Amino acid sequence: MSTAQRSVGTRATSAVLTGGSLVSAFCFTVAIALEILGRPATAPSGLDIAAVIGSMTVPEPWGWSTLGVVVVMLTPAVALIATVVEYRGHREAWLALGVLGILAVSLGVALLR
Amino acid sequence: MSLALIAFLVSIGAGGFGALVGIGGGLIIVPVLTVLLGVPIKTAIAASLIGVIATSMSASAHYLGSGIADRRLGLLLLLATAAGGVTGGLLGGLIDGRALALLFGTLLVFVAVQMIRQRAAPQVSIPHDDPVDGGFVSSYIEPSDGREVRYRARRMEAGAAVSFAAGNVSGLLGVGGGVINVPTMNLAMGVPIRVATATSTFMLGPTAAASALLYFSAGALDPVLAGPVALGVFIGARIGARVSSRVSQSALQLAFIAVALIFAVQMFFRAFTG
């Protein structure tokens, strides 16, 4: 695969990474702005989706920061899925699937705790 | 001022300094949070990992779009670093905080010594057109003059083994792993330094994500701290990259060596006194 082909075949992956960066940066910025405004930063333990949404709507820094952290942790996996789609039929797709498998193992271990 | 806001401001400085020296923010932000702000080391490591992913995401989008990151090489080595990231993340949950402080202090000394050696002697790398060994041929467009540069990535098994170790270090201590990956790719595998740096950056995100999930599930990841740290490191890295050509690299390296050794002493003190 030439350099030119490689560059063309990265648009979706680059878009996912850029999108994840922007969304997470927005969430973190809102959280910091709420901190500056003196909103309470108390946090429930663990990841409770209803609590996150509730905290975001109040609004509190914890909910926005948690959403940003989740977006940051998920974006590399979504980018790898984009790579699988972009490179289907090429060796890169299988390699990306392998890495996704390792991330799935990590997620599995995390959920089993 | 709340801890999160202080961490945000400190992270801008750490991210900027890390980008200027070329070692990423994790090596600085973890000791700063631990030694100066009194954050538990596992919480600091988890927050740093989120910063590593955020910085990698942003930079990788650019590197992939411009074709500088070698995606095939990155994905191949990523199999090893991500696996290392999982084991590092698991170990990080099991190891006592004092032992982590000891390991982190040792890593700081290692990086400082490496930097001193780099300053003392020029690097010797494998010629990129050397026909020995297998690997695969790839190329990139050199941004400075627009020409296509061809190279052969080789010694894949050795590269994968070192990458696994780098993933372990990343997951265990919350640093990027570039301090290990970049010299390995460049000096041992024959990959041009520009491609090695970009490819390593691309690899850091999924590697740190594999570890961060484990810290999150173990309750060590505090989003209220990790968010400001990630944004601060990200902003600092962008500023550092912009001004890096205007400051003396040699003076910065000396400053980093001094700071790393001071933090290493503090980490050793914390490890032995609790």
What does this structure look like?
The complex is a heterodimer of chains A (113) and B (274). With 113 residues, chain A is mostly helical. Chain A is 79% helix and 0% strand. Chain A has helices spanning 3-8, 11-36, 49-57, 61-86, 91-112. Chain B is mainly alpha-helical and 274 residues long. Chain B contains 10 helices and 2 strands; from the N terminus they run H-H-H-H-H-E-E-H-H-H-H-H. Chain B has a two-stranded antiparallel sheet with strand order 1-2. Classes of the chains: A mainly alpha (113), B mainly alpha (274). Chains A and B meet through helix 1, helix 2, helix 4 and helix 5 of A and helix 1, helix 3, helix 4, strand 1 and helix 8 of B.
Write the layout of secondary structure elements.
The complex is a heterodimer of chains A (113) and B (274).
Chain A: H1 3-8, H2 11-36, H3 49-57, H4 61-86, H5 91-112
Helix pairs in contact in A: 2-4, 3-4, 4-5
Chain B: H1 3-21, H2 26-36, H3 41-66, H4 71-94, H5 97-120, E1 136-141, E2 148-153, H6 156-173, H7 178-188, H8 193-217, H9 223-243, H10 249-273
Antiparallel strand pairs in B: 1-2
Helix pairs in contact in B: 1-2, 1-9, 2-3, 2-10, 3-8, 3-9, 4-6, 4-8, 5-10, 6-7, 6-8, 7-8
